[in-house]
Every structure is written in structure tokens, then in C-alpha cells.
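hey m, so remember when u said the C-alpha cells were messed up on ur end? i reran from scratch. heres the input so u can diff it against urs
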Amino acid sequence: MKSIREYHEATKHSWEKLYQDSHSLDWANQPNPFRSYLDCPRIDLGSGFEKIYKPLSSVWSFHDIEPRNEPITLHTLSALMYYSMAISAWKSYPGVEPWSLRVNPSSGDLHPTETHVYVHNVKDLPSGAYHYFVKGHQLEQRALGDIVPTLWQTLGGISTTPPIIIGLTSIFWREAWKYQSRALRYCYLDLGHAMASIRVAAHGLGLFVMLIGGFHDENIRQYLCLDKTDEHPLLFLAIDTKQPVADTRQKNIHKGTISASMHINRLSRKEVDYSLITQAHALTTKMSMNPLHKKGNGNPPVSPFNKGGFYVSHFKIHEAMAIQEYPLKWTIRHRRSAIDFDGETTMSISTFHYLMRLLCSPYKADYLIPESPPLIIPYLYIHRVEGVERGLYCLDRTNKKLFLLSRGDMQHVAKELSLNQDIASDSAFAISFISNFDYALNTYGNRGYRYIHYEAGFLGQSLYLGATAIELDATGIGAFIDDEVHTFLKTPAEQQVVYHFTVGK
């Protein structure tokens, strides 16, 4: 495999491939959803949490943050985990072992993402490397020592050393058990959800975040003693009471290790190797020359908004439409993935504009060129929105405009494109997240494949939280008939669908 394009093509759904697929779930071999480092002492994070009374809209755009005046403590870190990566509820059913739901969503509730916390000068917690044990809301102490300054330098940090760096890793087998070779897509999407989840919680607590996705994978994996595990580092988040700053031009290589525990629990009796996942992820680990110092990043993305006469009509997303939201502390902890919709509820126009504003809010990361165009373009199938004509729409996230492409009832086509799932037609609206695929790969190399999924997951999290904040429901849809989506939307070949989503009641 020479390009990530080959992986994407090989893992597309089609009706023919789905009918031929004989894969069945081996329930006795289902991976353990909880990773543990077996020889590490555990530190309880406690049960008293700060209350975040701010609404989602005040922290999602990340422009109006009220900086935290108090230093970061163990109590602060506990609240950060509680509102971003913790268990939110336990479910049970007669004859079935209870299972957990978490604050951050996951494809199939399989949770491939693991959370590592690297601590520097946090009150009541020794400096060192920790793994977040979700089931017990505890930290597993993998190594002691002030390792964060060197880690921060390795990641290109140039501001003062942050007190917390969170590392997000992924265990591909957890997803592959159910989704086979397509699982890598879902792992990257889940990472985008987790990234947004942590960032929202941090900003709600008055903390600033720097997203770092550009690093030398194998070097950082060895340095953090993850190379003998099944975990693959995907993203780091530097968290401080002031804005952390990293140098995007240079990432350092550190040849030592932090001498941390690698004694992990076994997740399954046996694991099935999916070579497409191994090969594809290996392609994304290579760091291409930083685009800021690269001459000629290829052609800019094809923009559907520049085509004269393409639209039936359009309207501006209103900034001033007020809406009542639940406090963030309630919203975060009550987010769920809907399993069906009533097929009747009409969404108010103010609610719709509120959700579109969330989709239009940009985010910054060290791996993105400043002021670069969005990597994801949302196409909306609008079924029931007050004052909005039924039809197919396209959202210009940069200029905050919604363009009507085609009038008519889109319920049947939204359902059919989403593998005949009723959730895509019974909601108020559904979305196809279309990536600027060629632009991402030409600009960032194969690693750009991660970034388009991160952005789609990030946008999905905005809809999850936005819907919950106003007593609506939402769910992500990872299964769709890829090329039929392109055919219906008439998108150019250089754009590819990476995610579906739906919102309703």
C-alpha cells in the first residue's frame, strides 16, 4: 500500500460488499472496554467535582474564556476527567452484563481511545506519567519524575511548561473486533470526539488548550514507553491557565525513555490481525515537511460555493438568535447517542441557527495551516425545521451561509445512503460530512487522513453537546454507502464522505 487513498477505497461500503460479508461478532472474544496498567498504584480522583454553570455556546467558540485564577490541583484534574472522559452512566438489561456509557461518544460504544496524563507541578499530585483508569475514576501511576518539561520540548513547546499534557492513544483492535478493516476510520473519528470533549471541559474550567497532532510517532511512542503495548499515540493536549504555544516548524527527537510501566491487561483471548489497518496507520505516521515552510501545497480545495448558478437560494446563519441552554455540567453528563427518533418533531428556527453556529466555529491546532480552509463541508438533508424548506443544503462554514441545492423530501434518500437506517430519516435533519480529501493529503501528506476525521469528529461532538443542551438528541452514523453519497450529492472526485450525523427528538 503506497497511499492512504488505497485504504480509503478498500474500506468503502457498497451494497454488494455488505451482502457478501460473512463476518459475525464473537461475543466471547469481545475486547475489555477498560485498559489497566496492572503493576501501577492507583490514585483516587475523588467524587467532589467543580460545577460548570456556563452554557456550551460560551465555551465552544473558545473566544470568551474567563481565565482560571487558581492554580491547577488534583481536584481540578479530577473535574477535567469527570467532564471529558469519564463514565456517565451504567446500563443493565435482564440476562446481560451491565455496560457503561461515557461522556465522550464512541462508535459501537467500543471506546478505542485511552487517556494518559503527564503532570508537572500540580498540587497534591506527584509529577509523573499517569494512565486514566476510567472504570474507577483513578490515575494509574506509570512513572514518577518531572518528565513534562522534556516532553513539552519534544512536542515543540516554546511557552512555559504546562502543568498538564494529556496524551490520547488508540487501540485499533477494540474497533476492529466489530468493524474489521474499516475500524481505523472510526478510531480517528473517536479521537476527534475525545479531542473536542476534553477541550470543552478544559475551557469550562477556565483552562486553555493547545492541540498537538504533529509529532514523530515512533519516537514519541518509545519515549513514553508505549511501544510494547497495543496503544498508538494520536494527539496531545497541552493544558494551562494561560494559552500554551508550540513551534509548528520543528519537533524534537528524544532518544531516552521515561521508564514507565508497560504491564497492561489483555483485552481479548485472541486478536485478529487486519493488515489494512496496520499498513494504513503506518502511512499516516510519516511526518511530511511542515506546510508553512513548503513551497506549493498543491491546488486549493475545490469549493462548491464558487460555482455560479449552482444554488437555488441561500440564507445567512444568524448570530443574534438567543436560545436557552442547560448548564455545561448537565449537558456534558447527559449526552447520549440516540437509537431512534420520533419522526414528528419540528425543530425551531432558533434552535437550527444555534446548531449551525456551533458547526461554523473554527478551531486551531498545531497541525493546521493558520487561516486554512475547513477540511470538512457539511451537506444537510433537512426534513423538519421551522421556516426552512425541505431539501438538500450545503453549509459554508467560513462565511456562515447555508445554500439550498435541491428542493424536496430527502427522508428516503438520507435513509438509503445511511444503510437504510431510520435514524437518518426520522430526525429533524441529517448530515453528510464531506472532506476536502485531496487538499488534505496534498497539503499534509498521508497524515492528513487523520486530520479530516479529527475535524469530522470534532463537528460531531458540537452537535452532540448542542442538541443535549437544548433537550434534543443526536447520534453519529459511521456506516454509509460511500460512492452512492458522492453520486447523489454530485461532489467532485477530490472530495470524500467520512461521517454521517443526525439530530432530532
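this time it looks ok to me. The longest strand covers residues 232-240. if urs says something different then somethings off w ur setup not the seq
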